[in-house]
C-alpha cells in the first residue's frame, strides 16, 4: 500500500474540506473579495 493516500482514496467529505480550504486560502489573498 502507498505511504500517502491519493486523491482517489479520499471520500467526498475529504474532497469538500480540501476544496473549502483552498477557497479560503484564495479569499485570504484576494482583498477585493
SSE inventory with pairings:
Layout: H1 12-28
Helix fraction by DSSP (H/I, runs of at least 4): 40-55%
Number of distinct helices? 1
> What series of H and E elements makes up the topology?
H
| Poorly predicted ranges | none
On the 0 to 100 scale, the average pLDDT is 75
Largest sheet properties: none
Describe this structure in words.
It is elongated and about 35 Å long. The model has no long low-confidence stretch (mean pLDDT 75). The chain is mostly helical and 33 residues long. The chain is built from one helix and no strands. The longest helix has 17 residues, at 12-28. It has one helix at 12-28.
In short:
This protein is mainly α. Helix content is 52%, strand content 0%.
Characteristic terms for this protein:
elongated, 1 helix, 33 residues, single chain, mainly alpha
Amino acid at each position: 500500500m502507498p505511504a500517502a493516500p491519493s486523491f482517489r482514496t479520499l471520500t467526498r467529505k475529504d474532497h469538500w474540506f480540501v476544496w473549502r480550504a483552498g477557497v479560503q486560502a484564495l479569499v485570504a489573498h484576494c482583498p477585493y473579495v
